[in-house]
Design goal:
Elements: E1 6-11, H1 15-26, E2 31-37, H2 40-50, E3 54-57, H3 66-77, E4 81-86, H4 91-99, E5 104-107, H5 112-123, E6 128-130, H6 138-144, H7 151-161, H8 166-173, H9 177-190, H10 196-201
Parallel strand pairs: 1-2, 1-3, 3-4, 4-5, 5-6
């Protein structure tokens, strides 16, 4: 691997998913999988010896929300970025990832291209939130496709649809809350809505 390859540690308790992730990432010349862990305890030890730039981990390990706890621990004890890669994408899970300090979240329904793009965006210093559509978000997909919305407004709207507060959105995107409020006003105006309540009333 090139010396400037992005060093990634994987945490996943499902062997086939772990194998698939490692195979996908290791095939990319700018990415280097430097460690793989199947439990939180192994991950805590492994991060000390592998010194990764990014840790990819799930919301849950086993039957517990240990991935979020691990994310919080690693973000407070290392300089590595953290990407939550999960099949649990309800608003509560997204909020938990935000509060744990994650630099992004990608749902497991995402394409390999989406995951690779998210990893490279995080490497560039961006924060990425792609939980993917849930049954109660499908109407929101049409709103996200509104042609007048900017890319940043779509990011804010996506988090609004996950019912994050303005403060949580500011933390997720590492911007000031006044900036979030400005985006919210702008996107609601473009959508012909007056408040967040209108946004959710528009969904069946």
């Amino acid at each position: 691997m090139p010396g400037d390859a992005y060093r990634i540690m994987l945490v996943e308790d499902h062997p086939m998913i772990l194998f698939g992730l490692a195979h996908l990432l290791q095939a990319e010349p700018d990415l280097d999988v430097v460690g793989q862990a199947t439990t939180a305890d192994v991950a805590r030890r492994l991060v000390q010896t592998t010194d990764p730039d990014l840790i990819v981990l799930p919301v849950r390990l086993g039957d517990r929300v240990a991935g979020i706890e691990l994310c919080r621990h690693l973000k407070s004890s290392t300089t590595a970025k953290a990407l939550v890669y999960t099949s649990f994408t309800d608003p509560e899970d997204v909020q938990a990832a935000v509060l744990a300090g994650a630099d992004g979240l990608v749902g497991k329904a995402a394409t390999p291209e989406d995951l690779l793009s998210a990893i490279r965006s995080i490497r560039r210093g961006q924060r990425i939130w792609l939980p993917g559509p849930r049954a109660d978000q499908r109407a929101g997909a049409a709103l996200l496709d509104h042609p007048r919305l900017t890319e940043r407004e779509r990011e804010v709207l996506r988090l609004m649809l996950d019912r994050l507060t303005n403060q949580q959105i500011a933390e997720a995107l590492t911007v000031e809350i006044t900036t979030v409020k400005s985006h919210v006003r702008s996107l609601l105006r473009k959508l012909g809505m007056e408040s967040r309540r209108d946004l959710f009333d528009a969904q069946p």
